[in-house]
Automatic annotation (TrEMBL), chain A:
Keywords: Cell membrane, Membrane, Transmembrane, Transmembrane helix, Transport
Superkingdom of the source species: Bacteria
NCBIfam families the record matches: 3a0107s02c (TIGR00974)
Secretion signal span: none
Record's keyword annotation contains Disulfide bond: no
UniProt lineage: Bacteria, Pseudomonadati, Pseudomonadota, Alphaproteobacteria, Rhodobacterales
Pfam families: BPD_transp_1 (PF00528), DUF3333 (PF11812)
Organism name: Pseudooctadecabacter jejudonensis
GO CC annotation: plasma membrane
Transmembrane segments: 28-49, 216-237, 257-279, 285-307, 328-350, 406-427
Keyword field contains Transmembrane: yes
Protein name: Phosphate transport system permease protein PstA
GO annotation, biological process: phosphate ion transmembrane transport
Annotated ranges, domain ABC transmembrane type-1: 212-424
TrEMBL record, chain B:
Matching PANTHER family: PERIPLASMIC PHOSPHATE BINDING COMPONENT OF PHOSPHATE ABC TRANSPORTER, PHOSPHATE-BINDING PROTEIN PSTS
Protein name: Phosphate-binding protein PstS
Record key words, sorted: Signal
Originating gene: pstS
Signal peptide bounds: 1-20
Pfam families in UniProt: PBP_like_2
InterPro entries given in the database record: PBP_domain, Phosphate_ABC_transporter
Domain PBP positions: 17-310
Superkingdom, natural source: Bacteria
The UniProt record lists the keyword Kinase: no
SUPFAM superfamilies, per database record: Periplasmic binding protein-like II (SSF53850)
Amino acid sequence: MTDTPKTSLLTVDARTRKRNAAEKRFKAYGIVAIAIGLLFLVVLLTSILRSGLPAFTTTVVALEATITQEDVDAAEGQLLKTAAYEALLVAKVNEFLVERGSTIEVDEDFITDRLVPKTGATIREFYKENPDQIGQTVTFDLPASTRISRYFEGDLLREDVTDSRFLEVADLDVVDVMIDAGLITTAFDWNFITGTDTAVDNPGGAGIGASVIGSFFMMIVVLLLALPIGVAASIYLEEFAPKNRLTDLIEVNISNLAAVPSIVFGILGLAVFIQFAHLPQSAPLVGGLVLTLMTLPTIIISTRASLKSVPPSIRDAALGVGASKMQAVFHHVLPLAMPGILTGTIIGLAQALGETAPLLLIGMVGYVAREYPDGIISGFVDSNSAMPAQIYTWAARADTGFYEKAWGGIIVLLVFLLTMNLIAILLRRRFERRW
Amino acid sequence: MSFIKTAASTLAITAVTATAAAARDNVQVAGSSTVLPYASIVAEAFGDNTDFPTPVVESGGSSAGLARFCEGIGENTIDIANASRGIRAGEIEECAANGVTDIIEVRIGYDGIVFASQIDGPDFSAFTPSDIFNALAPQVMVDGELVDNPHTQWSDFNADLPAADILAFIPGTKHGTREVFEEKVIAVGCEETGAHDAMIAAGMSEDDAEDACLAVRTDGLSVDIDGDYTETLASIDANPNAVGVFGLAFYENNTDTLKVATMSGVEPTTETIAAGDYPVSRPLYFYIKGAHIGVIPGLKEYAQFFMADELAGPDGPLAQYGLVSDPELAATQAMIEAEEAM
C-alpha cells in the first residue's frame, strides 16, 4: 500500500493558496488593463470635446446697414466686390458710435480686415436675393474675426493685444462699446455643420458640410458596389464553389487583402482609375471606387461567417422538400444570414468613412470642398473632399482657427461613426437568430 | 433583388455619364503647398466676385503639380500648376512630349523671410548665413573640427554679435517658409563654415551631408513654431534675447515692436527682395496651360484676377498674408492679357 498523505478539502494547502493567488493576480491585471484603457478613452474624449466644441459656436456681430442703389452699383463695379460691400457697413457703425457717445471713429479697414473680415459675400448674396431691401435699413448678423471672438469669450486679454493687421488695441474700445450695447453675442454656428471649406485666411467661415456630402456620395458608391459584389462572391464561395486548390488560394488572398494597408489601395486607385481610366480627379466616384476595393474583403469575410452560422439543417430541409440549391440559398439561408451581412456591411462602411490615406493620393486635400455639388451626377463626379481628408487639410493650416475646426470636424466624424455602429448593433439585436 | 439591379444600373449609367459630365466648368489647380494659401485666397475671392465657379486648388508639392500639369491636354488634366520654383528644362521637355506646349509662366510675387528681434532687445542688426548655422546647427566647425554645437551665446562664434543667450524661433517643418530658411540660410551657412566638406571628409555621402546640413539643434535653443507669425511674435515678446523668423509683410506691420537684422549686409525691403539682392527669398510661380484657355471657362479670367492690383498688389490680401508683391506686376498683367507663352 502506498502512503498517501491525508488531505482535506477544508484545509487550504500551499499549492491551492498559490493557485488562488495567481488567479487573484490575473484578475487584478485585467482590471488594471481595463482601467488604463478607460483612462485613455476619458482623456481622449475630454481633449476632443474641449478643443472641438468651440468650433460649434461663433461670435456674431449684429451690424446695421442702409445700402442704396448707388452703393450697390459702385460696389458691383469693383473687382473685389465683396470687400466693397463690407466697407459699406462703416457709415452705420460710426453713427452707432456717435449715438453711444463715443468719440472714436472707425475706418473701412477696421470693418473689412479686423471686425468682420470676409463677410462681404454674405451681404452681396443678400442684396442679390432681396433687391427690395436696397435702401432699407437691414441688420446683418456677421461672424466676428478670430481674435475679436477670442477677446469676447475672454480667451484674449486686453493687455496681451499688440497692434497688428489682425487687431489693434484701439479696436477693443469700439468692441467694448458694441458688447455693452449687446451687439456681440455667441450663437450656434450652423455654418460649421452645413458650410464649405474656405481660404486659408478665413477660418471663421469654414464648414464641414460640403465634405459630409462628399463622404455621403462615396459611401453610396461603396454600398452599391461592395454589397452586391461582396455578397455574390461570398454566396458562391460558401455555397456553390467546389473545395479545391484554386478556391483555397482565393480564400487565402481575400484574407490577405483585408490586411493590406489602405494607402496601397490609394496608389492603385491613382494608377488605375485616374491615370489609366481617366476618371475625374478628386471625385467622390473615384474615392468610392478606391474605398470599395478596401471594404470588399471585410464584407466578404463577414458575409461568409454569417452564411456559415446558418445551421445545415435549414439547407437540408429545403433540399429535402425539393427546393433547388439556388432556391434553398436565396429563400432560406440568405434571409437568415441577412442581419450578419448588414452588420458587416455597416462596419465596413464605417471603416471606409474614416479612411484618409487613400484619399490623399487621389487629390482630395487642398482647397477642394469649396462648393456644394449641384445635382446627383455632379455629386459623384465633381471635385469634393471627404470628412477625414477635410480634417487633415484643416489641421495642416497655419491659422489656429482652423486647428479648432479640425477638432470640431473630428466630433462630427465620430458622431457619424457612432451612429453607424449603433445601427449595426440594433440590427444585430433585432434580427439575429441564435440556434 | 430588384433594388440591387436598379442600384447597379444607376451606377453604371453614372459611370458612363461621368465622362460626358466631365465637361468641366471649373478651373483645376494643383502644386506647391507654399503657393496653396495664396491660390486658395484668390480662388475663394474669384468664386465670390465673379459668375464662375470656385476653382479647385489641390496641394501636393511643386514637382508633383508640374508632373500632373505635363501629363497632357484635356479636361482630365489640370489647367494650372503652382510652383515655388521655376519650371525645369526637363519638365518642359516632358510637357512637350505629351503635347503640352504654350505654357504661360506667371510670377506671382516673392516669398521673403526676415530675422527680427525685440526692438529693445540686444543689438541683433546684422547676420550672415554662417552666424545662423553656427547658432542653430547640431554640429558645427570649431577650430577646424566638426563637433557638437558648444555655442550658447551669439558672441561665442562672432565677436560682432551681442553676448546674449541663443534662442531662435523658426518656422515649423509644415511651413513653406521652412524650406527657404533651410535652403537659403542653413545650407548656405553649412557650406560657408566648411561643415559640409567636413561631413563628407568624415565619410558621409554627398546626399547625406546635404540632409545633415539642414538639421537644427534639438537642445531647446531652437524652437519650431507651427502656428502663424503671431505665435512667433508672442514668443519674441516673452523672450528679450530671442530672434524670430517672420514673413516680410508681417514684420512691416509690426515695426513698432520688432527690429530687423540684415542678411549678408542687405536689408530686407520689398525693393531688395524684388531685385533679388536680399538672399532669403524666392519667386513663386504658376503655370497656365495655353491650350486650355478658351476651353475651360474662367481660366484666363482666374489668372487675370489673381494678378490684378487689388489682389497681388502691395495692398491686396495676398500681400497681407505675406506675399512680397512683384514690382513688375504691370508687365505680368500685360503678358497674361496677350497669352504670351514661354
